[in-house]
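Reviewers of the previous submission asked for a worked example of the structure-prediction workflow described in the proposal, so we include one complete record here. The input consisted solely of the amino acid sequence. No template or homolog information was supplied to the procedure at any stage.
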Amino acid sequence: MKLTPFIDQLPIPQYLTPLERHKCFSYYEIGMKEFFHEFHSELTPTKIWGYEGQFPGPLVNVNSGECAHIKWKNELPDKHFLPIDRTLHGSSEHMPDVRTVVHLHGAEVEPESDGHPEAWFTNNYHTVGAVFDSPVYKYNNNQRAATLWYHDHAVGITRLNVYAGLVGMYIIRDEEERKLNLPSGAYEIPLIIADRGFNEDGSLFYSDTTNVRPGPVQPGLTFPHPSVTPGEAFENITVNGKVWPYLEVEPRKYRFRILNASNERFYKMNLSNGQKIIQIGSDGGLLETPVYMDTLTIAPAERMDVIIDFSKLAPDDTIVLENTAATPFDFPPPVGTLPDPETDGQIMQFRVVELTGPDTSKVPAILSNIPKLRECDAAQTRDITLDADIDEYGRFRFLFNNKGFMERIDFKPKLNDTEIWRIINTAGATHPIHIHLIQFQILDRIPFDAQGFTANGLLSFTGPPVQPDVNERGWKDVVQSPPGFVTRVIMRFAPFTGRYMLHCHILEHEDHDMMRQFEVVKRKCSCKNNCICKEHKPKRKCECKKKCTCRGKCTCKKSCTCKKKKSNHVSKEERHHKKCPTCPPCSETYRCECE
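From that input alone, the workflow returned the following structure tokens.
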């Protein structure tokens, strides 16, 4: 169905107001509902799902350090309206159709509030997953200003639930950002981009069979029906829930928080008039300096904080935000398909109107200071391979280290340790890799002999390291990992322990087992009986969480060696020394209080 572009105005998601404000936190309730949504004025309303009955969901706006408690409520029907593949882990016949769990992507949270795929719940919590803990998730927001997003993460059906509409944006703000005088208020606009397909009756289209290949790779095998596919991309590009919308802009600077909420589609974005886009932030917040870009390549789940300056344009001028990325990404024709300039080659249109007042906002030369993680501080380097595989039905799939989601947890970084992960892509496609809990920094990408590595396991580099693009040199939680490259990232595992996820954010890949768990574990204390940790003081717990046994009192019973009269002493024996340099055990150098 061919729709006319740029006839519907861009909707702007509204901020959600907390139900209660307490001294230590704000309390929200967000329900997931089924409703009918108008994607385009030429389409009949479409049945979808959304948080609070909206697509995308409402904006959650918090300050850094301000706690938010959110009760997530599944108010959806019992039956899914999209095709469920019963062969995938977590989606067998005995499992409920409609399972949901919410992941706040980019947040530093305890595992109970991270949205583990097995922490799902049904309507009214009637049935819950194996690791479900509580319907109320606690977000401390103890991190710098950044654009996060919340979305469904239920095992085996994440691709369906997100495609059905379960996405929304979550913004953390802080004083550093406020002082920069960036465009704000009506001139700060979220752009949540997602492609969708429609049937002739206006309903959502989603493939129920893997028709990417002519048939099973192995003879005698047949694909199940419905079946997961290697990826889904559609010609209709929605922004904030509208297909190819337009936005009226004044000739001044605007700040756009861009999220790629598509299942599989990458975008290579540029402005049709050739002017540069100014990127000021990435997944984990502000960059150090503004970056002036002709083209921005954004993978699924990545966020880009940008400024577009329309001040040199006149009223009635129009420019289009265009897309030139092939689908699948990195595959030129005939395998990949280049976007059609009349459909998926367009994202949205900007229409310039009269200026209503002076623009006092700025693009500062310096935005933030980002401390660099040092390779020499890394406690360990881990190798994570991206592997192509064929499943038991003859379907193509991708894995980490040739292992599926439910296999033994091999990655156990220690709390507060810095590690380097080498993502070794032998799988022939660019994968957007997301690591929960932490933000990382990209070190480099090094070309290697992928065929040789697959054959003998030996890593042979074929060229020098390629530094990350200038707009990738901030904090990240998604990294584009191209085929034939070792992508190195460095990160510090803090502030929580527990089990978290590593997965590809092409959601069809994630549901088909391209996801592993890692566990952040406590560091074993080196002290055996008495605490000798650094900065130890009486009555203070050491880092290993064991109680100190000295209780501020020295246990030695040596006689005092000073020559003052005993009447000046606190006691005849040295039982309590405020000036003890270490305790216990007591040493020969202890001095009594009279000294």
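Residues 131 and 287 are 36 Å apart (CA to CA). We consider this example representative of the routine output the project will generate in years two and three.
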